[in-house]
From TrEMBL, chain B:
Single GO BP term: carbohydrate transport
PANTHER family, A to Z: ABC TRANSPORTER ATP-BINDING PROTEIN, MALTODEXTRIN IMPORT ATP-BINDING PROTEIN MSMX
Origin species: Halomonas heilongjiangensis
Name used for this protein in its record: Sugar ABC transporter ATP-binding protein
GO cellular component terms, A-Z: ATP-binding cassette (ABC) transporter complex, substrate-binding subunit-containing
InterPro entries: AAA+_ATPase, ABC_transporter-like_ATP-bd, ABC_transporter-like_CS, ABC_transpr_MalK-like, ABC_transpr_MalK/UgpC-like, Mo/tungstate-bd_C_term_dom, NA-bd_OB-fold, OB_MalK-like
Molecular function terms, GO-annotated: ABC-type transporter activity; ATP binding; ATP hydrolysis activity
Lineage: Bacteria, Pseudomonadati, Pseudomonadota, Gammaproteobacteria, Oceanospirillales
Source superkingdom: Bacteria
Residue ranges of domain ABC transporter in the record: 4-234
Amino acid sequence: MTHSTSVARPARAAARRSSAGHLQAWLPRLVLAPSVAVSLFFVYGFMLWTFILSLTNSRMLPSYDLVGFAQYARLMTNDRWWVASTNLVVFGALFVGICLVVGALLAILLDQRIRQEGALRTLYLYPMALSFIVTGVVWKWLLNPGLGIQAMVRSWGFEGFTFDWLVNPDMAVYTLVIAAVWQASGFVMALFLAGLRGIDDSIIKAAQLDGASLPRIYWRVVLPCLRPVVFSAVMILSHIAIKSFDLVVALTGGGPGYASDLPATFMYAHAFTRAQIGLGSASAMLMLGGVLAILIPYLYSELRSRQHG
Amino acid sequence: MSALEIRNVCKDFGNEQVLKDVSLAIDSGEFLILVGPSGCGKSTLMNAIAGLEPVTSGEILIAGEAVTWKTPAERDIAMVFQSYALYPSMTVRGNISFGLEMRKVPRAEREAAVERVADLLQISHLLERKPAQLSGGQRQRVAMGRALAREPKVYLFDEPLSNLDAKLRVDMRTEIKKLHQRLGTTIVYVTHDQIEAMTLADCIAVMRDGRILQLGTPDEVYNDPVDIFVAGFMGSPSMNFIAATLEGGEGGYRLRIVTPDEEDLVLPWPVSRETPDLARRVGQQVVLGLRPEHFSEEDLRLTDQAEGTLLEARVTVAEPTGADILLRLPLGAGEVTARVGPKCRVAAGERLALRVDMGRAVLFDSETERRLA
């Protein structure tokens, strides 16, 4: 190639290149734009709308008479809201705690290089594939005193056996814990198992040589390495807990009475069946606040550690 | 009494025999190196000594006590791993004192041990850091510190230097040697690097396919190899192997090396190194082993006085390394490597007269590959 012919070209070539470059730079944005617009409107737009509604006196239909934070004040004096909130604390704490313990134990036991590990792993993970509605219905039958476990044990001859948590207002919330733990602990196990498999084998050997017993090796050496896994598990489980709606609907229906209500069922009942859209919106905003209170510190610490890393 | 004794240890993984009847013994304070190519069973043997891998049969004794069926913790050993295996969630201090804590050593003693080890390895300034904040060399030191904190009967090192870069590896090698000289500890050290083996060991066990081929001092293994494999594995550049025919007759044995297109090369075998075995091999094929340093360039002015056998060849490649020059030259059917002094001015394509020191040459059976003389 000679120099004289190529001198005139660069300008045009550069122009062509830059228009192609523009297209290349803009293409991802163009492709993503519809979904961004849709989620802006349907997620953040509706969030904003809910917030506005929570400041109005809307009942059956939305109205836009602003009443300030009156709906929040009403919520604070609402007995049913307090039952729902207390239930959430009990349910959330037990659900997350038991899932972590059961999941970690299952993962550690599965990690001992046992036979048929693949089959067992799948077995434990399957409940996660079910919808909470299915879980709720199954456990409703199992826990039904006239049909399920109580009836079965009594039919074996233990006539005095009672297991009626489902219809006992003081215990109904614990049936939610049982069903939710059954469903989610396999998933936590999978998370932990992945974490355990990522740990260098020789660390465990070193701890053995150092004279630590197996429980101690796990407690002192292995589990501290799994802190990020625990963190993610807590995040995922607690937002499942706060969102829990379908399980309650299918298992207890919030009952007996409203003894096993959770904020989500409270919100649904008020906004859509009891013509209290304003009050329902206020409770929805408080739930959002709850989720954010967990999520923001998590995101903050995650992003910060990534910058450091 | 031996610090460590292994008696007829076998280990099978399914149908595969990884260790085949391994026996060895070392005295207290000795530095034993297990060396061999990957897959030779050296790491399995080390894991068996540590108790991390149960043996199929045989016995292991530490300080005279049978430990074959004891747990790793009961054997009173410490190990340095290839991957360092530091506990990621603990500080350096925690890593070093963990073993003592598990053995219920009082806190004050633990602190003292950490200080002693940190001083010894010059890691006092790192004690509060986590392993993730350390460089490779520092992690290596901490891993050694963890082993040194307790005073076990035997230390095991599993390829401890293979994750370090070349310069650091040489430094740490010297450091380990110094440490051993200072503390007089019994060490079993696994490596695939024959230079590490030569420089560190009191005693080398060369392994292949689950067997110990030769157990001896570095000098024995290097100068007196039992077979072609050991001879070729130890030393870099490795020993030259030349096919030859053994000839007898008056005035001792001779080796005839058939060279294509040229006259056969005949090298006399030194009378002082004749063995009874040789008589039965006359007329048979043998393999002559010559290390690169057994060649030396011939100063023609001194021809009359110098000892050894003269040969002449055309240099194909000359590789100066600085300290000396490696020459490739045709000899017999193949090529050999010769190591000559840095002052030897020779270029590729030139002919050169070389002297061969047959007094240090070795002879192998060409079929069994065992040593003949």
